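Second attempt. The first submission of O-glycosyl hydrolase had a stray character pasted in from the spreadsheet, which I only caught after the job came back as garbage. Lesson logged: always re-copy from the clean sequence file. Corrected sequence (506 aa) follows.
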Amino acid sequence: MNRNQFVFKSISCFGLMASLWLTGCQKQVLSTNEDDAVNRLNQLNAQAAAVTTNAVVEWNQERQKIDGFGAFGGRIVPFFESPKRDSILDYLWGNSGLKLNILRGKVLHTYPFNQQNRVVTIKPAGVDIDVAVNSPAYQALSADAREHLGQLWILKKAKERFQVPVIIASTWTPPLYMKTNPNSISGKWFNGLNLNTSSTLFARYLAGFAKAYQNEGITINAISPTNEPENVFSDWDASYWASNKLGEFVTNNLRPALNEEGLQSTKIIASENAAWGTANTFLSGMDRSNVDILAGHGYVEITELIGGKRGFNQSPSKWTFSTGGKPMWVTEASDDGGNYDAGIEGGLKLAVNMHKLLADCDASAYVFWLGMLAFQNNEALICTRSDGSLEFTKAYDVMGHYSRFIKANYKRINVAVQNANGLLISAYKDPQTGKFAMVVTNTGSSSVPLDINLSGFVGGQLSNYQTTATSTGHWGLAGMVAPTANGVYSLTIPAKSVSTLEGTKQ
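This time the job returned cleanly.
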């Protein structure tokens, strides 16, 4: 008999004897004993739940510099044609909304391109970008021309109205006549750029795109020749790249082409793989000497995708190669799987993804996939209901907990946590002004008491902004948190919530 069998038999015998003894007792006594046991169990559970999380924010333990937060300016035509497009711009990049500082555009593959003078035409002739969408002039445009016009309007208005400082553009596919299979828009069967005939041509196309926008008063701060270069499965526009060939293209073709157009300050992004882990493998195998921003997306890893999962990567890992001090950006992420969820569960998925990529993987920027959609879908921060009204998802609120309070050039600082109780905590500071912000995510179904200590600095009161399952508005001010006499900030983090605590170094 092993030890487990002995214990089991002993308990069984004791249980039988106790049962016989209890049979002769009054039912009232039995009930009382049961009530006592239940009460005791509840007390133990309450004590376990009440264990305080302790966090120490270390001012002098600096991590990566933050470059900012953004969203993609599409889907382009529905965005441009929306009667609420002006409000949507403000809700995303304006001061009353998310205050995003990055706008991601698209190097469309359908622009007219004069190969002799290298001019790319990004604006349909004879049509003003403020044309009414129900006018004959607009209705006469082709689908491609509407997309060209729409993107120019979005980027130009965001720049003019909100001085959006960082505009980037990613390329889904080269013009089809430059691909190995010019009859397919997808990357299926490893369909990509024809390196034997079109490397120089494609590089000039990208440079011509950036130059054309510059002529419109819009600086393309960074350009990416790829979007998910490993995607050889989907039907949408894509282009296959081998990692070594992408590195060669960037060094031998794209950088020289940009320089020839006087665009020496235009940065190059690579490689924007669908998953953070895939980007690690892809980038580690290529020449990165002329890549300025190392980028990946925030979707599930390929092994999870094969297993049927979709959506936000909830456990991304640090890259294993040396980045050489170059910034790492998340240039796309959303919940692209499952039923539509505008509530807190959908928001928490984004919160976990953002925390782990920023705090665990040292990403410097985070760009959500779609700013808006003309219907309800998890891939957008702002959706449109069937009656035409806008719906703000809890993911929109979560994005604001970062983008409204953590500005470009802030630095992430270390947070030492004991008894985490499921809380995800990160902190950021402005070295110039002394402002700082902590983002605290609680994915659990119970509230958690939290004590915050400051190391290396003293702070005054903290403004506590919260999003919960039942909160209205967006990142509402839940109150102020003052330090105790010994400098500890004590508060309770609600179940299933995201909180931002903002203060200033004294």
